[in-house]
Write a structure and sequence with these properties.
This protein has 147 residues and is mainly α. It has one domain (2-146). It is built from six helices and no strands. Helix 1 runs antiparallel to helix 3 (41-63), helix 3 packs across helix 4 (70-99) and helix 3 (41-63) runs parallel beside helix 6 (115-146). The longest helix has 32 residues, at 115-146. It is globular. The two termini are 17 Å apart.
Length: 147
C-alpha cells in the first residue's frame, strides 16, 4: 500500500512540475465546471503531502519502536508532517526571493493571500485523515510483514 501511495504522490508532483501547479489542464476544466477562481491542483498536492508522509512516518516510528502508545504515535506523525509542510513553504519562499519575477509561476499562489496557510492546513488535514482512515489497514500489513 505504501509503495502505491508513494508512486501516486510522485505522479502528482511530476504532473505539477510539468504543467506548473497553477495550470494543470484537468483542474483548469474543474475550475470552469465548479466556478473556482483558481486552479486548485496545488491544493491536492498539499493534501497528499500530508497524507502519504503520515503513513511513511507511521511505518518508521512503528517499525523502529520509537514511541509507546497510539496517542503519542499519532501526535508525532502529525508533528512530522507539519514540520515537512512548513519547511516546504520556507523553500518556496526562498526560491521566490531568489527568482524574483519568476516567483509567481513557482509559488502558484494565483493571487490567494492565504495560500501558504491553506497549504499547511491541507497537509495537516491529509495527515489526520491518513491516520483515521488507514491505520487499521496499515497495521494489518505491518503485522503480515513480521510473519
Amino acid at each position: 500500500m505504501l509503495y502505491i501511495l508513494i508512486l501516486t504522490h510522485c505522479v502528482i508532483l511530476m504532473v505539477g512540475g510539468h504543467y506548473t501547479y497553477a495550470e494543470v489542464p484537468l483542474f483548469e476544466d474543474l475550475k470552469t465546471v465548479f466556478g473556482f477562481e483558481r486552479n486548485n491542483y496545488d491544493k491536492l498536492g498539499h493534501f497528499v503531502q500530508g497524507f502519504v508522509p503520515a503513513l511513511i512516518a507511521r511505518e518508521i516510528l512503528i517499525r523502529k519502536n520509537v514511541v509507546n502508545g497510539r496517542a503519542w504515535l499519532n501526535f508525532f506523525i502529525v508533528c512530522i508532517c507539519l514540520a515537512f509542510s512548513a519547511f516546504y513553504e520556507l523553500i518556496e519562499w526562498w526560491v521566490a526571493i531568489a527568482s524574483g519575477e519568476a516567483a509567481e509561476a513557482f509559488l502558484g499562489t494565483q493571487g490567494y493571500v492565504w495560500d501558504t496557510q491553506s497549504d499547511m492546513w491541507l497537509a495537516l488535514l491529509g495527515a489526520v485523515i491518513a491516520i483515521l482512515t488507514m491505520s487499521r489497514f496499515h497495521d494489518s500489513q505491518l503485522k503480515a510483514l513480521k510473519m
